[in-house]
Design a protein that fits this description.
311 residues; 2 domains; two-stranded antiparallel sheet; elongated; Immunoglobulin-like; 7 strands
Length: 311
């Protein structure tokens, strides 16, 4: 096989993995994030299989098979099951606007190229150098996603995407899955630490009973609210349908009530350990209060309504 073809195909597949990292930063829905993550895992497996074919190294085919099974099938299935079970299919909450995240991502890719290519000049082949630059870019973009997402599932997706960058680097320097295992020990320790720090330790369902007293059907695109238990704030959350087409949002039928539900995440802290325990074990004995604003829309108008209620 010609060196030019081997380089071009490897470059194309590595570029696909990098493109998937940008798509992860762009996606607004949790389920779409998981689908892109599965595609990225399949591309990493394809990169391993291609380099195994080019170099004639059987252990890379084993790496490709395991990567495809775990990253393209098993992990996405587990994440989708968690999203369905906890009803977490919603808009992704970000600490930066999507455009800002993408611009910062481009800067990280440029930084990776400026760091890797000069540092490896004369010490590695062109194929390995390009692969390492792309791998570092994927790693940094995964870390960027973790830093700019506010909820657990997108952060986990960013963590797995960053690990894809590590695996792509291992493949690029001709390490198989088994040889790369020792290289990944530090990553596994980091995974465990982040999993403990960002673990969702409490989930509560908040139901909004919206009564439409008008004679036309309305819908809501966004509900921002703060939840209180016995007068203590448990935090704020946003239920957003802004990236859903108008006909896909929950309908508020005329002169009738409609119930819209949201899953509220409650993070543990020592300061409210007693309240946390009561919320989980005796929530029916708590005085609940919620207040916030809801964006209500018809086909031609948009209004923001404030609300407050107790239970």
């Amino acid at each position: 096989m010609s060196g030019g073809l081997a380089y071009d195909v490897a470059h194309l597949v590595g570029g696909g993995v990098l493109l998937a990292s940008f798509l992860l930063l762009y996606q607004r829905r949790v389920v779409a994030l998981i689908s892109v993550l599965a595609a990225q895992g399949a591309l990493v497996a394809l990169a391993a299989a291609w380099l195994g074919l080019v170099r004639g190294e059987a252990h890379l085919f084993a790496t490709a098979a395991i990567t495809a099974a775990v990253k393209a099938v098993l992990v996405p299935l587990l994440l989708r099951g968690m999203v369905r079970r906890l009803d977490l299919d919603r808009a992704v909450e970000t600490a930066l606007p999507v455009g800002g995240s993408l611009a910062l991502g481009v800067g990280l890719v440029a930084l990776s190229v400026l760091v890797v290519l000069p540092a490896t000049a004369g010490s590695a082949g062109a194929l390995a150098r390009a692969d390492m630059a792309m791998a570092l870019s994927v790693l940094l973009l995964g870390i960027l996603m973790m830093a700019t997402r506010r909820t657990a599932i997108p952060q986990v997706v960013g963590l797995i995407a960053a690990e894809n960058g590590l695996l792509l680097a291992a493949i690029g320097i001709s390490l198989g899955w088994w040889q790369a295992r020792s290289m990944r020990r530090l990553r596994e320790a980091l995974v465990a630490t982040i999993a403990v720090l960002s673990m969702v330790v409490g989930l509560s369902e908040v139901a909004f009973n919206i009564n439409n007293t008008n004679d036309i059907t309305l819908t809501t695109s966004r509900i921002e609210y703060e939840l209180f238990a016995d007068g203590a704030s448990l935090g704020t959350d946003t239920l957003s349908y802004e990236d859903v087409p108008l006909n896909g949002r929950p309908p508020l039928f005329p002169n009738s009530p409609t119930t819209v539900t949201d899953t509220f995440r409650l993070d543990y802290s020592d300061q409210r350990a007693e309240l946390f325990d009561r919320v989980l074990n005796s929530s029916d004995q708590i005085n609940w209060r919620v207040s916030g604003t809801a964006t209500v829309e018809s086909g031609t108008t948009l209004l923001q309504k404030t609300f407050s209620d107790e239970l």
